[in-house]
Amino acid sequence: MSALADLLAFQRETEALAQVAERLGWDQETVMPRGAYAQRGEETAVLEGVLHARRTDPRIGEWLEGLDTARLEPADAAQVRRIRRSYERQMRVPLRLATALARITSVAQGLWADARAREDVAGFLPTLSEVVALKREEGQALAQGGDPYDALMEEYEPGATGEETAALFGRMRPRLVALREAILGSGRSAPVLNGRFDETAQMSLATELAGIFGYDWGRGRLDKAVHPFSSGSGQDVRITTRTDPADPLNCIYSTIHETGHAVYEQSVDAAYLLTAIGHGVSMGVHESQSRIFENQLGRSSAFTGWLAGRMVELFGEHTLSDPAEFDRAVNRVHPGFIRTEADEVHYNLHIMLRFDLERALIRGEMEVADLEEAWNARFARDFGQQVARPSQGMLQDVHWPVGLFGYFPTYALGNVYAGCLHSAMRRDLPQLDGDLARGDLAAPLHWLKEAVQRHGGLYAPRDLIARATGEPPSEGPLLDYLEAKFGRLYDL
């Protein structure tokens, strides 16, 4: 089947170029000089033009037409499905639009960072308006008469729709709100970790934790970034974190979270390297790995008991040296402003807010000029607090400036998937708490690799979770876990 061989060889080169483009993004976030944003925007646009030309090359259509899909092996069939899906989507987006988006979102990233530092919404609105206009155009081109938001969301979570996601959130919200109200009305307050914690020692602990959670240092590195992220796949997967001398928990759990993403990419079957299925199947599944690492494993009472002892060894006695108190501090519930710092109870409520706002923006039901007022009003209604400054509100996240509309709901979908996976893991690993109490992650890491990570893009997202757990994904296991965990912590 020469058509298959030609198609896969061509795709391998495209995947390699895409990795180069992703490395430019890593560089921009970590070590690029601040004065290079405009030039990087041009570089990114040129490379995106090359990638777009490859992804819309007419030969792809010819090769796809020449295939006898009934004769394909499962891995080849999965590659062909993903290549076909990408080709059909890319063909709907004009080169002019693809390069314009790459250019403006690269520049917007730097402008957003400056605007956030200055608390300057008005100065950033023209740039954000341009990004939204281009994303609306892209959504309309992809949707071909359908819902433009669904078309954008499809890029990050194939098979998901805005309507289904809104229904899921509608089912989750009542139990989340009821749990939050019960916790806040319980009369129990969780302790807060106080003190000064050396940032070099924090990075040392972050390095240790990444290794404990399975990160392969021979194929990765750890750096600092304003907004922690993971980048790359296969043999080059990089993570970032951040440090604050007054808040070591932020460094610890940012690192564990990004390690979840990275280990997923490092664990994909090596035979899939630089192929269409050689990386995580969706952002929802990706987030399930980072969230189960961070929360169900990293914030479990068993693991926090081990971590409390390690903190004393590294930093000396501190205000929360008692393991039980440390556990309560790590899992403290409070209605803060910042999504990335939100506890497990509030986190999905942050996502629901963003989902509703960005869906309205892309559908043309809201204009960018109205976004700040809409955000602040919704936050006050959902969280009972008034946003004091833009960095607490609409300027806190980088996603909209860089054009990631349709991405936010995958965070909550990832939590739902993680709830399903955790329930199945507990069923299969009755010794899990004993292992976690020793800081031993070998068993859960192996379970996740075999159930999810090694498959890469071989299966569709929901099918992958169903195969791993034996049940179709649903919100029930996540909500049951949250009610049980925080019921224990807050004596509900």
Automatic annotation (TrEMBL):
This is Metal-dependent carboxypeptidase. One of its GO terms (molecular function) is metal ion binding. GO terms for biological process: proteolysis. The active site is at E258 (proton donor/acceptor). Belongs to the peptidase M32 family. Transmembrane segments: none annotated. The keyword Electron transport does not apply. Zn(2+) binds at H257, H261, E287. Its cofactor is Zn(2+). Its EC number is 3.4.17.19. Broad specificity carboxypetidase that releases amino acids sequentially from the C-terminus, including neutral, aromatic, polar and basic residues. It catalyses: Release of a C-terminal amino acid with broad specificity, except for -Pro. InterPro entries: Peptidase_M32_Taq. Keywords: Carboxypeptidase, Hydrolase, Metal-binding, Metalloprotease, Protease, Zinc. It holds the Pfam family Peptidase_M32. Binds 1 zinc ion per subunit.
